[in-house]
Amino acid sequence: MNHTIYITTSWRARASIGVANKLRDAVHAQLQVAGRQLVDVLKAQSAAVQWKGRYRTGWIYLTKPWELTVKNKYRHAIFIEKGRRAGAKPPPVAAIAEWVRDKLGPAANPYLVARSIGRKGIRPRPAMYDDATQRKMHSIVHRCVHAAMAKVLTAHITGGP
Question: Which residues pair with 69 in a beta bridge?
Answer without folding.
Answer: 4, 62
